[in-house]
Write the structure tokens for this entry.
Amino acid sequence: MNEKKRFERIVKGVALSPGIAVARICLLNDSRHSNVPDYTVESQDFGAEKERFYKARAVAKENVVKIAERVKLKVGEAEAGIFDAHVMILEDPQLQMDVEQLIEQNNMNAEAAIAETLDSYEMRLLEIDDEYIRERATDFGEIKRRLLDELGEKMTSHCDDGLCQRGHNRIIVAEELTPQLTVDLDTDSVMGFITERGGKNAHGAILARALGIPAVSGLSKIRDMVSCGMEILVNGTTGEVTLWPRETTVVKMREAEPEQIRMPVAVDPVDGLRVMSNISMPGEVSCAVHMKSEGIGLYRTEIELITGGSDYSEDSFYESYHKVYSENQGQPIAYRMFDIGSDKKLSGLDVPDERNPALGLRGARLLLKNKELLRMQARALARVSVHGDISVTYPMIIDVDQFLEIKQLFNDSIADMESGRIKHGVMFEVPSACLQADEIMDIADFGSVGTNDLAQYLFAADRDNELLADYYTPDHPVLWKMLEMVAAAGKSRGKTITVCGELAGDPKYITKLIDVGVSAVSVSVRMIPAVRAATKEHFLNKSKNKLNGER
Ligand code: PEP
Ligand code: MG
């Protein structure tokens, strides 16, 4: 997988089962029977080959009966009927006769005889000019795979390093959505299905709809385009699949279709790493609470401002900020002051055209030039603070002096009004601030590392330019050295440093983050369960290693 910068890309397939899900991919190795073992069997071994077939059939039948029972309980009688039909096929004396005949007359091994028999049944149905009947043909393919599974290699994921979240909250990408695939997996933790083929009336699609799992098919080359661990947005209502969706794409979708989103199963907090949420819109707080988030570590307040048109005021800001406060069940919230500029332009602001906007008037610099906007936001936040403690974070701070200047401006803006306790923190996302982490953490209440921008400025590689992906490298040791420095500056002063860039939401980096001294992360809401699962695993491995070392 390309671990460097990821770029959004949309592909269109056939909508099979409505709903929307955003999660990481688990790519299934379901073409495992494309090379069916095929060898000559001598007459003295006919009995043994037939025995292998009978045994495989007995186990397959037992499994299908169990599945049918589960589906009956979970989905309904009618859907369970799909599997009753599979049992009938497995018990059909014609199937037995045909397989035995191929073993005895054509000297075939059990696998080859099974494959040839069931392929021929499937072909016969596929020749019939009726879509419904043609889609029933996949039942034979399904039974073939079941039997071959019992005779050899089981279905596996391509993933060997846990990037697909070890089976949790994942979107399955496979060649075909078969009924077994749909229900064999733990359906509570499957967030969606994407397949290369399979029609709307196929049994897998019927089951996906009954289970409420979004599904899209007809993406013929999708398995070549993706890899385990890749994040994907599947829209089973429109058939659109977005590879590496941008945060703004996900947020827009969540705002527009809240009831369509399939939420992952929440995982309880884990000692040793606080996991908070990054949000962009007030409506996301309910998802954060649902996912047992330990606070909002980054509220990107500018997104609502930029997307909401020019009709804003201190009152409209207050309304949004108070909504987040009141719905967050007393958990801490870090409101990031508007990070406008570069790719986040706010129309109507007096900002000259810039040749190099990422290095131009953005974040704290822009606020210092647009004091009225800063004042309006500060006053809205002060009104929220009357209800309880809040935190504010300043984006793109370059050094101590700039932090002191903007904090002073904030305090001057609210000097004439009632306010509660407001903590002031710094976004560490420009290398100069990281290099002054000790001095900054002497005066700041907390810090937040924005690795998205930090990588951009550290490696001089535009975060939005896909041609520079090779230079935008979260794995680079220099980035980790900076993270360690900032974490140490916070730790030695008893102040929290949260990492809130995309890197923090990637389970792959959790061990590394904990090892460099990070004790809090803030991630996309949907990534909370995966991050907690990785944290649990990290501490479990640690205690195992400790035990082994002591022996
Ligand atoms: C960052 O830069 O890592 C960050 C969290 O802020 P944003 O992505 O909004 O720039
Ligand atoms: Mg940033």
